[in-house]
Write a structure and sequence with these properties.
single chain, about 550 residues, alpha+beta, Phosphorylase Kinase, domain 1, Transferase(Phosphotransferase), domain 1, 3-stranded antiparallel sheet
Length: about 550
């Protein structure tokens, strides 16, 4: 068996030498005919025919010379002209491609054998190939530049960078295993083991931060777990940014990253706001995924603009709110990483790694739970409609109680009685529909029902006072203005029309129940103001979505 293996290896070496000799002649400009090359090495005819077939350059009898010239032009220090999207593989000097192992937004990764030295490697090349722009190529090679500057145990090392004929490739260490994303999807890794691996990655990213490099695209898919050792490796520094560089490969307004693991400042496209805290947010999002099975902000690939808006404007719901079994300290650590304000997060990944190590070793972490005001702020941002409604009701209730105590409502006993019933009903209406909204996972219909209840209660309250002459009519405008917090343009339109209808009922009651009280044209300015406020709010939401779609470009 050993003799057979030795014979096989010797034959492979001979074939490699023949192919290498072919490349040398091409580089010397002799342009040898591959048909003649086949006849010179009949013992390797099958292998050589396969080699030429792989690059799709086997000649036709009537065009043999033209094909030879094409072969020389293609192989003279360049990659094969075969399509990267087909079943054929590109050809690299000193490498034999074995198989395709991954395909992403920017590049394709192949498993290959390097002949000198003899080892298995991963080769990454651009999907755009010769059609790539200068910025595309710079961004692609930026990955090798960033990774080569880091001597971290968990960063995939780069062996070689090539750019033959404008088609760059990067040769890296081949990691035999699966991605962290695959292990999480299959529940093939325990929570403790996952956190330990994230800690190792945080140490490596901390070293990058110490070297003024931020990754900007950390996610489970970019973390490889070696099969035998279980060692994690972080890869894909294609979006890495050098903080001390004079230029950037991204322009203002570019949104670079992956929704779900993208920080709010990253989603805004403000490159000056990028900092090591950007990577800290992504690491916190990975921890969040381990703890809850989902990302902090659920990504909707069909509406990237909506996802980016959620990332920028909404605080994350804590993992412990979804699963009370999660340790409070781990919940605090995770939420510190996911603060909307970068200044509230760990300044860099090294400090996160140190705190995570403390937790894993059973020590107390340095991160502290937010105070009561911050908790209240988060609660309000998660429930903007309920918070706004209760604030308005509280202010009105305080005003009403003060007036009652001072005797200002003695002439309006019916209104005083109505207010005592309407205020609690309005608060209960808001709470009930907020509960339905949460249980229905953000469905639209509770919002429409909620708004309908608010307008009806306000209209009933007005019917027990001066109707359209009452100063409480201004609350219709408040209801329309608050509807914009839902970020749904059609809901704003519905609430506007509903408020206008409620005012018309109030105006009609005042007009016809008390003859001569209301001038026929007195209600027109109020209706116009309601319509104008609603229209402006509607346009603001629509323009917000359009601006994100036209300016922001997301790498999913």
């Amino acid at each position: 068996m050993t003799d057979q293996n030795s014979s096989f290896e010797h034959r492979e070496q001979q074939l490699d030498a023949i192919i290498a000799d072919y490349y040398r002649k091409l580089e010397q400009g002799s342009c040898p005919s591959h048909l003649e090359w086949l006849s010179k090495h009949p013992e390797f005819e099958t292998e050589l025919r396969g080699f030429f077939a792989d690059i799709d350059l086997m000649p036709k009898p009537e065009k043999a010379h033209e094909t030879d010239l094409a072969l020389a032009a293609t192989l003279n220090g360049r990659l094969s002209s075969s399509s990267c999207d087909g079943n054929r593989f590109p050809v690299f000097a000193n490498y034999t491609v074995i198989e395709e192992i991954d395909r992403g937004g920017m590049g394709i990764v192949y498993k290959a054998r390097q002949h000198r030295p003899d080892r298995v490697v991963a080769i990454k090349m651009m999907r755009k190939g010769r059609f790539a722009t200068k910025d595309d190529i710079e961004r692609f090679l930026n990955e090798a530049n960033a990774a080569s500057q880091l001597d971290a145990e968990a960063v995939v090392p780069v062996y070689e960078v090539g750019d033959p004929g404008g088609e760059p490739f990067i040769v890296m260490k081949y990691v035999s295993g699966r991605s962290f994303q695959q292990l999480l999807n299959e529940n093939a890794i325990s929570c403790g083991d996952a956190l330990a691996k994230i800690c190792q990655i945080a140490v490596a990213i901390g070293l990058a931060h110490d070297n003024s490099i931020i990754h900007r695209d950390l996610k489970p898919a970019n973390i490889l777990i070696e099969s035998q050792s279980g060692r994690p490796w972080v890869t894909d520094f294609g979006l890495a940014k050098f903080l001390d560089a004079d230029h950037s490969l991204t322009a203002a307004g570019d949104v670079m990253g992956t929704p779900g693991y993208m920080s709010p400042e990253q989603a805004s496209g403000e490159k000056r706001a990028m900092s090591p805290a950007t990577d800290v947010y992504a690491l916190g999002a990975i921890i969040y995924r381990v703890l809850t099975g989902r990302t902090p902000i659920v990504s909707d690939n069909s509406n990237v603009a909506r996802t980016i808006q959620l990332i920028q404007e909404h605080d994350v719901i804590s993992p412990r709110s979804m699963n009370r079994a999660i340790c409070p300290e781990l919940n605090t650590l995770c939420m510190k990483c996911l603060e909307t304000d970068p200044g509230r997060r760990y300044p860099n990944a090294r400090l996160l790694a140190e705190d995570l190590e403390r937790f894993l070793s059973g020590e107390s972490i340095l991160a502290r739970s937010p105070g009561a005001f911050r908790k209240l702020q988060r609660w309000a941002r998660h429930r903007p409609g309920l918070a706004a409604t209760w604030v308005v009701l509280t202010l009105f209730g305080t005003y009403h109680l003060t007036n009652a105590m001072l005797g200002g409502l003695n002439d309006y006993p019916s209104f005083n009685t109505a207010a005592k019933f309407v205020l609690p009903l309005a608060a209960l209406n808001a709470w009930f529909w907020q509960l339905c909204l949460i249980r229905r996972h953000g469905a639209a219909w509770p919002l429409y029902a909620w708004a309908t209840g608010e307008v009806l209660l306000l209209t009933v309250l007005l019917l027990f006072t001066d109707g359209a002459r009452s100063g409480l009519v201004a609350l219709y405008n408040v209801i329309v203005a608050v509807s914009v917090l839902r970020c749904r343009p059609f809901l704003v339109g519905y609430v506007t029309l509903l408020a206008m209808a409620g005012y018309i009922v109030s105006w009609g009651f005042s007009r016809f129940a008390e003859t001569g009280v209301q001038d026929p044209l007195q209600g027109v300015p109020v209706l116009l103001s309601l319509g104008l406020i609603g229209f402006v709010q509607y346009l603001a939401l629509k323009r917000s979505n359009i601006s994100y779609e036209s300016i922001g470009r997301s790498q999913v």
